[in-house]
Specification:
mainly alpha
Length: 78
């Protein structure tokens, strides 16, 4: 099995003093949305164990990547 060396995309930054979108079009909306879903997942559990925190993060990542968008659900209902 060959392991990819460049698994992660190129890291870019956004200077919020200049604007909310970089000249290359990079913004922080996706990561802020992902963290919103992770926090929501933690709130649904009565007690969050530090030992299993990686499992909660995996759960929210799975839901974030696999649950269809609101628009897709509505189109299926029509």
């Amino acid at each position: 099995m060959k392991i990819k060396k460049n698994f992660y995309p190129k890291h870019e930054i956004v200077n919020h003093e200049v604007g909310y979108v970089s000249p290359t079009g990079v913004n922080t909306n996706q990561i802020e949305s992902a963290w919103k879903h992770i926090r929501r997942t933690f709130r649904t559990h009565i007690r969050v164990s530090k030992h299993n925190i990686h499992l909660y993060a995996k759960e929210s990542t799975y839901k974030f990547n696999n649950i269809p968008s609101f628009e897709t659900v509505i189109l299926c209902l029509i």
